């Protein structure tokens, strides 16, 4: 997605630069490959369409209000304007570069005399303006490529934007490093210089927390210039590799070749044999590339660790924690609660296994749908019907949210058509110039899983919509808070579907989603975290072999899944199939999702405490503050909680435990459990 793209091309930048990029609107919020998969439910709902899934087609989005085309004069003009701004920034930054050696001791008197504040203010203004144009073009190209992955012009445009983004980063380095290094009174004078500089208060102060880890200007520029052909090239290699792999699946006496995405779609089949064949076929398809994947993991991890060493960072958590605007104490509190609650996810999986008539789930059963008497009778919703289900459900919580959902449909800001060249998955993005969001689904068939996916992405869009009138530096939020509205929307819609259910079987099918979430966020995501932590701990001792990498993955799964999963020893190749381990610009792209789920459940529970009348206003205010506060401060202000204490997370996990217990009760009613 575009968020990943931007962070990858600027992976070497630090502090204020990182905060600046995070605050750029238009970022993509993409669901993680396993963690955010929607409920694998098969529902027999009332009030649904009589149309079959094969006949249901989602709408195409309209991008014409941004640019007529990728080759339009309007798009070219924006790129040219950005180039001019970058050139001006370079000229303005030259005197600042000369001041950097003495920046830590520079006096406010000298700063005023040399008109340094004027230069900093102008560079800041140009930086936001240039980034807005580049992000707008980049988002447009990404949207085009999502619908047609073969579009060569879109790929070329994205590559051009990536190169220009690196140039923008280098042009901004003198100002970034100066603001990080200068004395406190100089930084305060910058923030008080005018209205626009004042809007940068949070990201400047947050960035200065890393001031002791900045390198010299030549070193920072070297890292930035090497990033595209160096570090990010490893991530690109993985992306290209995953897009070219063919999977061979046995169908009767014949063999069928398909891509990874198509093969993965078979993992949620009602037929276990189909799931099993697909799982092994995917594993076999990756196996010839094990050495390549190991080389990529080794290279990316070693590059990061060496960079951390040169920056004199105390450990490999410092950067991801800073990016997520949270403390190590909060991370430790989160995982202390998770490690004490592994039984919750394991219980959910054991109930699922019983419902499927198995003693334990196998690795290929993790996407299995809920068993129903007649899968063909599952209810489906046309796109308009699905929009109304979502709008009514969230509208009961927040009327403005319901209106927003309908507006997204009416404005043609949702892409959900079917197409052979579409990229798989779902995401939310937005255009910085117009500040209008877009939602992408690779397909829409009217069934509940994709209905919940649509709700999830519309939650992301609503989050950005509420922040659209905020100053640009206050519009970006970190990964851990990015799931606040999306999972909230999904939770509300799932609860609404549960309330409508007419039979125990229908309720069980919906509650299957809660079981999926419990296993995903309390077992699978923590296992990924442990694997990546172990990888970072062991890499300094030398290059890790494919066997060692596989063994670490098996150990991580065994630690969290315990006795809830059969054949844990065969999951070693899991690391090859997960994009998140190969994102060159992001490390530990895992714990933010468990953080996000539990935090959103805490927000959802707050409605019961404050009452419906007060909740919607509090909810909107909370979302707006996610771009200008640390995670700890957001929770303390709006929920009165301390996320750096285990009790907060234990309380949130208590909600998940209650959902699993309800799931067990339904299973007993259906005779799956005694």
Question: How would you describe what is shown here?
Answer:
The chain is mainly α and about 675 residues long. The protein contains 28 helices and six strands. The chain has helices at about 1-10, 15-20, 75-100, 110-115, 115-145, 150-180, 185-190, 195-200, 200-205, 215-225, 230-245, 260-265, 270-285, 290-310, 320-325, 330-340, 340-355, 385-395, 400-410, 450-465, 480, 485-500, 505-540, 545-560, 590-610, 610-625, 630-640, 645-670; strands spanning about 30, 245-250, 255-260, 415, 425-430, 435-440. It has a four-stranded mixed sheet, with helices on both faces. Strands 2-3 form a two-stranded antiparallel sheet. Strand 5 and strand 6 form a beta hairpin. The protein is globular, with a radius of gyration of 25 Å.
Summarize the structure.
This protein is mostly helical and 674 residues long. The protein contains 28 helices and 6 strands.
Annotate the secondary structure layout.
Blueprint: H1 2-9, H2 15-22, E1 29-30, H3 73-99, H4 108-113, H5 116-147, H6 152-181, H7 184-191, H8 195-198, H9 201-207, H10 217-227, H11 231-244, E2 246-251, E3 254-259, H12 260-264, H13 272-286, H14 290-310, H15 318-323, H16 328-339, H17 342-355, H18 383-397, H19 399-410, E4 414-415, E5 426-431, E6 436-441, H20 448-466, H21 479-482, H22 484-500, H23 504-538, H24 546-561, H25 591-610, H26 612-625, H27 631-639, H28 646-669
Parallel strand pairs: 4-6
Antiparallel strand pairs: 1-5, 2-3, 5-6
Helix pairs in contact: 2-9, 3-5, 3-6, 5-6, 6-10, 11-14, 16-28, 17-23, 17-28, 18-19, 18-22, 20-22, 22-23, 22-25, 23-24, 23-25, 23-28, 25-26, 25-28, 26-27
């Amino acid at each position: 997605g575009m968020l990943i793209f931007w962070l990858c091309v600027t992976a070497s930048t630090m502090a204020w630069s990182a905060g600046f990029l995070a605050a750029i609107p238009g970022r993509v919020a993409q669901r993680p490959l396993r963690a955010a998969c929607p409920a694998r439910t098969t529902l027999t709902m009332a009030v649904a369409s009589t149309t079959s899934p094969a006949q249901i087609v989602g709408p195409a989005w309209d991008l014409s209000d941004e640019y007529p085309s990728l080759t339009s004069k309007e798009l070219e003009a924006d790129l040219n304007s950005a180039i001019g701004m970058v050139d001006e920034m370079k000229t303005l930054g030259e005197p600042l570069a000369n001041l950097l050696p003495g920046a830590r001791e520079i006096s406010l008197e000298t700063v005023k005399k040399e008109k340094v504040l004027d230069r900093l203010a102008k560079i800041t203004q140009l930086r936001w303006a240039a980034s807005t144009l580049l992000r707008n073009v980049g988002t447009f190209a990404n949207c085009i490529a999502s619908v047609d992955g073969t579009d060569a012009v879109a790929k070329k445009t994205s590559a051009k934007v990536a190169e220009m983004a690196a140039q923008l980063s280098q042009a901004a380095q003198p100002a970034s490093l100066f603001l990080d290094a200068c004395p406190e009174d100089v930084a305060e004078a910058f923030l008080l210089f005018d209205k626009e500089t004042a809007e940068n208060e949070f990201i400047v102060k947050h960035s200065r927390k890393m001031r002791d880890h900045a390198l010299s200007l030549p070193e920072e520029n070297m890292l930035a210039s090497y990033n595209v052909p160096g570090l990010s090239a490893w991530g690109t290699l993985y992306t290209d590799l995953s897009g070219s792999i063919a999977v061979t699946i046995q169908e009767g006496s014949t063999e069928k070749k398909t891509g990874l995405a198509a093969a993965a779609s078979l993992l949620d089949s009602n037929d276990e044999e189909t799931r099993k064949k697909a799982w092994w076929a995917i594993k076999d398809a990756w196996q010839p590339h094990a050495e390549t994947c190991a080389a990529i993991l080794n290279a990316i991890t070693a590059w990061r660790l060496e960079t951390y060493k040169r920056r004199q960072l105390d450990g490999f958590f410092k950067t991801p924690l800073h990016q997520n605007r949270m403390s190590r104490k909060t991370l430790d509190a989160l995982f202390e609660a998770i490690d004490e609650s592994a039984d919750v996810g394991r219980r959910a999986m054991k109930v699922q296994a019983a419902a499927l008539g198995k003693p334990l789930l196998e690795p290929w059963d993790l996407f299995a749908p809920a068993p129903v008497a007649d899968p063909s009778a599952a209810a489906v919703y046309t796109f308009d019907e699905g929009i109304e289900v979502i709008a009514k459900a969230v509208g009961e919580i927040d009327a403005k949210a319901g209106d927003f959902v309908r507006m997204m449909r009416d404005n043609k800001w949702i892409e959900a058509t079917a197409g052979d060249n579409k990229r798989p998955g779902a995401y939310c993005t937005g255009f910085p110039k117009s500040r209008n969001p877009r939602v992408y689904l690779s397909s829409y068939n009217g069934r509940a899983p994709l209905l919940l996916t649509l709700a999830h992405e519309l939650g992301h869009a609503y989050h950005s919509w509420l922040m659209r009138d905020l100053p640009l530096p206050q519009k970006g939020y970190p990964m851990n808070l990015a799931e606040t509205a999306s999972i909230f929307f999904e939770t509300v819609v799932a609860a609404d579907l549960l309330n409508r259910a007419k039979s125990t079987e229908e309720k069980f099918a919906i509650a299957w989603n809660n079981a999926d979430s419990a296993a995903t966020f309390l077992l699978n995501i923590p296992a990924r975290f442990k694997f990546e932590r172990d990888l970072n701990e062991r890499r300094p001792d030398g290059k890790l072999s494919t066997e060692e990498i596989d063994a670490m993955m098996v150990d991580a799964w065994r630690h969290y899944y315990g006795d809830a999963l059969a054949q844990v020893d065969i999951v070693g190749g899991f690391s090859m199939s997960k994009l998140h381990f190969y994102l060159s610009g992001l490390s530990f792209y895992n714990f933010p999702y468990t953080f996000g789920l539990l935090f959103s459940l805490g927000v959802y529970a707050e409605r019961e405490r404050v009452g419906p009348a007060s909740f919607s206003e509090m909810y909107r205010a909370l979302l707006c503050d996610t771009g200008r506060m640390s995670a700890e401060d957001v929770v303390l202000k709006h929920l009165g909680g301390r996320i750096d204490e285990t009790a907060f997370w234990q309380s949130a996990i208590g909600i998940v435990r209650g959902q699993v217990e309800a799931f067990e009760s339904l299973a007993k009613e259906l005779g799956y459990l005694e």
